[in-house]
Amino acid sequence: MISFNEINSKYMGENLPQSNILGIGGSPRRGGNSDVLLRNILQGIKDTEVTFDVAQLRDFQFQPCIGCEKCRKDKICTGLMDGMSLLYPKIIDARGLVLVSPTHNYNITAIMKAFIDRLYCFYNFDNKNRPGQWSSQLNNQGRKAVIAAVCEQNNKKDMGFTLDAMRLPLEALGYEIIDELAVFGVFSRGKIKEKTKILEKASMLGTSLAESIIK
């Protein structure tokens, strides 16, 4: 497992992120609609010069943020030693990011929320004043992202905060959201495979993201 000193020295210096993309799946259900959607987004990258990696959050054992605030000083999460230590280098190294989550109770899944909360360590804060000025260690690096959500119901109101819960934190961290995709009316495992136009659009999102990070 890479150490926090290695993360800070290798990734958080003057080195810019690489021209590759990291896909993050936030569904606890293996082989479900969110997995299919993420796979099709990444499929759109295969026809480009950009490489990609994928991480299903259910395969990583990590805790939610405990609010210890050690990262304010250390610039990376040192309060917890868990699976996020494996994900931080991937996040830092990738210029492109894809987040996909099903809607759970009007919001992203608990595991996706925990993941996003653990990105708090990338903020720089003015510790003299509360609340004070803040900035992101990931800002001004040409980082871009696409986000997608899958919902059983049939309208944006019933999807609730799912897209907002991914978009707003990424924008605050310095990512430009290239596009987003909301998929409605699917629940049964693999049902989304019947929505060929949606999957075609998902693939186009991947291509657009890849092209945007190599311009």
What do these coordinates show?
With 215 residues, this protein is of the alpha/beta class. The mean pLDDT is 91. It has a single domain, classed as 3-Layer(aba) Sandwich (Rossmann fold), CATH 3.40.50.360. The strands form 2 sheets. It has a 5-stranded parallel sheet with strand order 2-1-3-6-7, sandwiched between helices. The protein has a two-stranded antiparallel sheet with strand order 4-5. Helix 2 (33-43) crosses helix 8. It is built from 8 helices and 7 strands. Helix content is 35%, strand content 20%. The protein has helices at 4-11, 33-43, 71-74, 84-93, 110-117, 156-159, 162-173, 196-213, and strands at 18-25, 51-56, 94-102, 123-125, 134-136, 144-150, 176-183.
Helix fraction by DSSP (H/I, runs of at least 4): 25-40%
Straight-line N-to-C gap = 33 Å
CATH H level, superfamily name: Flavodoxin domain
Q: Can you tell me the number of structural domains?
A: 1
The number of E-state strands comes to 7
What is the third-level CATH name, the topology? Answer: Rossmann fold
Mean pLDDT: 91
Strand order of the largest sheet: 2-1-3-6-7
Which structural class is indicated by helix and strand composition?
A: alpha/beta
- Please trace the helix and strand order, writing H or E for each element: HEHEHHEHEEEHHEH
Radius of gyration: 17 Å
Largest sheet: 5 strands, parallel
- Large-scale geometry: globular
Q: Which architecture name does CATH use?
A: 3-Layer(aba) Sandwich
Short key terms for the protein model shown above:
5-stranded parallel β-sheet, 215 residues, Rossmann fold, two-stranded antiparallel sheet, 7 strands, alpha/beta
